[in-house]
Write a structure and sequence with these properties.
heterodimer; A: about 150 residues; mainly alpha; 6 helices; about 75% helix; about 0% strand; globular; B: about 160 residues; alpha/beta; 7 helices; elongated
């Protein structure tokens, strides 16, 4: 196993663990999570409830795939980059227009304090970590790549 | 190219699994509506908490009574511009600032108006709810907020 694939594997585990924890912690209070999304004042009203119901499961499915299902690592990492990127952009957008709302990152009111630039930095860092997991891709890709090299 | 196609399939597959699990979990455990009624959520919450609500024309009608107007937004937002004569009372500083505004609330026989940024902001509701719970039932939420004040052509004080 190359050093490069070890790095991407660790990155996948890290991003996967964050997504998995974030998703699981949101499940007990989906109504409260919908309220958190409402407070961001970004999504149209009609999209708030579906987003609150699906997003935690998307985090869980992608987090679990990053950790336990290497064959789906590339797709899950793509989702992770997208999700962390959207979270960072949403928080930065609200901070820039003076809307102070709790992050809602790990369920309802776990920290209580409004989201700050630290949350933006954390999400950007996680998006980069997810990107690292995506660069190497899944073991299927690695196998096919090594197979084609052997064939030459 | 093959990698890209496989990635698209994976992304779609993961979303489908998440959607199915969300639907299953919601049907079996969470029982949440897929169509929440978020339009007008703040006035509904205010009424449910027995907080009186008003609009700016009503506030203007009572202008001669000199009832205090409280700005529940952050001090930074207040500094950028506020309703003339409004007193800054950020919702998250209520505990610290209450003793300064208490005399105003006690002397105001009619109303104490509270506003925040716009129709969907929560700071005004939270502040009004706190005051009503403390027995100041004259605390009234102006649901249109500062945005409504600007839209109605109200003057701005800085």
């Amino acid at each position: 196993m190359s050093r490069f694939s070890t790095v991407s594997r660790v990155a996948a585990w890290l991003a996967g663990a964050m997504l998995l924890i974030a998703g699981v912690l949101k499940l007990p209070d989906l109504g409260g999570f919908a309220h958190d999304i409402y407070r961001y004042r970004i999504l149209p009203y009609a999209a708030i409830q579906p987003a609150a119901l699906v997003l935690p499961w998307l985090e869980i499915v992608c987090g679990a795939s990053l950790i336990f299902v290497p064959a789906f690592r590339r797709g899950a990492a793509l989702w992770a980059v997208f999700l962390f990127g959207v979270f960072a952009a949403a928080i930065a957008f609200n901070l820039s227009r003076g809307v102070w709302v709790p992050c809602g990152c790990f369920g309802v009111d776990v920290w209580g304090a409004p989201a700050g630039w630290g949350h933006v930095v954390m999400n950007v860092a996680l998006a980069l970590i997810s990107g690292t997991a995506m660069v190497c891709g899944s073991p299927v890709d690695e196998k096919s790549a090594s197979g084609s090299q052997q064939g030459r | 190219m093959r990698k890209a196609i496989s990635s698209v399939w994976q992304v779609a597959g993961l979303f489908t699994v998440a959607l199915l699990m969300a639907a299953g979990y919601n049907a079996a455990v969470a029982h949440q509506s897929w169509r929440g009624e978020w339009d007008g959520w703040i006035p509904r919450q205010a009424r449910a908490s027995r907080v009186p609500v008003a609009d700016w024309p009503e506030v203007r009608k009572h202008a001669a009574e000199n009832a205090p107007v409280f700005d529940a937004r952050s001090r930074r937002a207040y500094g950028r511009g506020h309703v003339p004569g409004a007193i800054s009372l950020p919702q998250d500083e209520f505990g610290r600032e209450f003793r300064h505004v208490q005399p105003l609330l006690m002397s105001s026989a009619d109303q104490a108006w509270i506003y925040c940024d716009h129709r969907d902001c929560e700071e005004g509701l939270l502040l009004a709810r706190q005051l009503v719970r403390m027995g100041y039932t004259n605390a009234t939420l102006v649901v249109e907020g500062y945005a409504g004040w600007i839209e109605s052509g109200g003057a701005v004080e800085r």
